[in-house]
Every structure is written in C-alpha cells, then in structure tokens.
Amino acid sequence: MAVALHKRGLDVHVYERAPALGEYGAGLQLGPNCFRVFRALGLGDALRRAAFEPLNNVSINWDDGSLRYIEPMKGNYEPRFGAPYMTAHRGDLHRLFRENLPERRVSVSKHCIGAESRGEIAVARFSDGTEIEADVLIGADGIRSAIRQQLFGADSPRYTEQMAWRAIVPIDRVPRAFGPNNSTRLDRGDYFGWLGPNGHVICYPIGDGDMLNIFAGHVSEDWVEESWTAPSSKEELIAAHAGWNEALLEIYSHVGDVFKWGIFDRDPRPEWRSGRVVLLGDAAHPTMPTLAQGANMAIEDGYVIARCLADHVDDPVAGLKAFVAERQPRTARVTLQSRQQFANNRMVPAPPPLSRDWIFEHDVTA
Length: 366
Ligand SMILES: Cc1cc2nc3c(=O)[nH]c(=O)nc-3n(C[C@H](O)[C@H](O)[C@H](O)COP(=O)(O)OP(=O)(O)OC[C@H]3O[C@@H](n4cnc5c(N)ncnc54)[C@H](O)[C@@H]3O)c2cc1C
Fold this sequence. Notes:
Blueprint: H1 2-7, E1 14-15, E2 27-30, H2 32-40, H3 44-50, E3 56-61, E4 67-72, H4 77-81, E5 86-89, H5 90-99, E6 106-107, E7 112-118, E8 121-126, E9 131-134, E10 137-139, H6 146-152, E11 158-170, E12 177-178, E13 184-185, E14 191-196, E15 199-206, E16 211-219, E17 229-231, H7 234-240, H8 246-252, E18 259-265, E19 273-274, E20 277-279, H9 294-311, H10 316-345, H11 357-361
Parallel strand pairs: 1-6, 3-14, 10-20
Antiparallel strand pairs: 2-5, 3-4, 7-8, 8-9, 11-16, 11-18, 12-13, 14-15, 15-16, 17-18, 19-20
Helix pairs in contact: 9-10
The structure holds flavin-adenine dinucleotide.
C-alpha cells in the first residue's frame, strides 16, 4: 500500500508498532492477480528474482501417497491468466517493499491507540502520547485492528476451527519418488500437497527454490493458546499426522523450528470507512488461508486505494468511498469462498477444489 501511494506521488507515512521492520513467518503464495500489481508498480522483474515460480501442482493421496492429480503451473498460468503464480519467503517480499519506499517515510515503535476524523483532517493518536494529522488515515493494522475497534466497536474475530503449523525444510530432504511402486514423482520445483482427514498440507519452494515451505492446516475445535501464534515442535506435528503418507512424515522429520497458528476470520462487513479513516487488508476483511489470498487481497487493496486517492486528490473522502465500493464485494466473495473451500476439504471424499479462476483473472491495474 505505502509503495503504491508513494509511486503515485502521494505523501505517505507509515507508523508501525514494532520496534524494527522485519517479517517473521515463512512462505506466501502470490496469485497472478497479485503479480499484476507488482508489475504495474514496476516491480514485476524484481518479484521474479525474489520469488519462485513452481513447476506443477501435485496433489497426493494422504494415506498411500498415490497421485490424486497433477496440474502444470509454470508455462500454464502465465499464458492462461496473463501473469505467473509465484511463491516467496515473506522476508524477501518485505525487503522488496522496503527498497521501494524511502526510509524517512516509515516510523517504528509507533503504537496507534486511536484514530478519528476532525472536520477536514484525520488524527491518529499513539501510545507515546503523540498525535499526527493527515488528509486520510488508513488502518492496515491486521486482524486485531485497534482502528477497526475504534471505528466500529469491539468484537472478536471468529475462530474457524482450523489451526495450522508452519515450518521450513531444505528442499534436498524431499523424497522424489514414493507411493505405490514409486509411481508418484516430484520435481524439485513442484508445489505439492496432501488432503486428508481433518487436515491438508501444502508444500512449496521459496527463496531460490532451495527451501521448502510447509503449511499444515488441521481441524481443531479448541484453540487454547492465549497468543494466536505459538511455538510448537516436530513431535507435535508428526503426532497429528499419524497414519499419513510416509513421504510426508519423512519431510517432517527434517523440520527445525515449528510454529502453530490459530486461524481466525470475520464476517464480511459492508462499510470500512468512517469520515477520513478507512480500514485495509486484514483489518477490513480477515480471511482463512484456504485460498491463499489474504495478503493478495491486501496488496490489491493497496494498489486500488492509491489509484482512488490519486483520482480524487481534491476530495480524499470521495477517494475513500470509491476504494470501499470497489473492494468490498470482491474481498467479501474471497472470504466466503475461503470458508466454503475449508468446509469442502472436510468432506469425505472431498470434492474437487473450487475454481479460483475468477480470482486470478481479476485485474485491479486495468
Ligand atoms: C498460516 C497462514 C498462512 C497464510 N498464507 C497466505 C498465503 O499463502 N497467501 C496470502 O495471500 N495470504 C496468506 N495468509 C494471510 C496473510 O498473512 C494476511 O492476510 C496478511 O498478512 C494481511 O496483511 P495486513 O498487512 O493486512 O496485516 P498484517 O500482516 O497483520 O500486518 C499488520 C501490521 O500492523 C502492525 N500493527 C498492528 N497493530 C498496530 C497498531 N495499533 N499500531 C501500529 N501498528 C500496528 C503490525 O505490527 C503489522 O506490521 C496466511 C495467513 C496465515 C495465518
């Protein structure tokens, strides 16, 4: 968002609560819809260098490791959707954004505790007692947004009955042939996954393709941790997948640090704006990761809000209204389809995946 605003010549300043910029967590999938935003910002080539383009999407049966289906990605998505499907380490993306935003445009250790419109200005208040004034204020402060609470009142995100483990292993540790008579073959650059009872596991290369990112989603009625992300262990990950395909368990045996997440979302809400303050990204529309589109939607939002504000430089409120009108229907549909995909994944046998073509075909830069 900040890069998009800056590239439009708008005077943007980021206030981040953390004491230093950085990104923890692991991989992120970027669909063709998201790649288009990077390209429109002049960062398409930089993203190709920073991220990885998987070769095939290989779906594997959870128990015996036989092949469910295989779909080519590289050489297929780009001709089909006009842009590639990429996978990246979050840290590499973060670096890319920082390289394209002057350092003076970012202040860290600024914990926003309130935001409001006062006539022709927006005001943000911080925990250190300071205030800033601006033409508009954009609350991009994540699923537990303080600004959302201030604008629309306190409510809690919904626990989705899904938790997820995330881990990284060296790609050389991945078995290349397994299943009945070694009939399932994996290329080094493949994106692959297992869909089984009470969970699904997605693995994809990140970095230069030398590391494998693992997302293991798991149905669980309780999320007992107070924190919504917590350290876990290889043993816990392996125990939760007892009886699953041995190739998966072999990959797990090479895992180092493991973290687990409780997955939360919210019902889509029709309005994200009050006066000169607006929400964006997870603050506005937190979404289950089943379609891997939460960050993609936040990145699309960033492009659109920059366009809308640049189109309405003399009337920023009109710009914010145009932003919400354009983005609310699309993000609501993605949130609801993410939930539906999760419900479908729990069926036995699971139906084929819902089509994501309508998501990938959309071009916010057109
Ligand atoms: C396990 C998992 C896997 C996922 N995989 C994918 C994927 O493959 N593809 C995808 O598109 N999405 C994925 N997502 C979703 C994605 O991570 C989120 O949708 C995305 O991070 C939202 O971005 P955001 O900028 O809106 O919020 P956040 O990433 O939450 O960023 C909010 C920022 O605001 C700061 N902040 C918070 N409160 C304040 C405050 N009061 N004052 C100042 N600063 C504040 C935070 O420190 C943070 O830097 C996944 C999510 C999970 C949990």
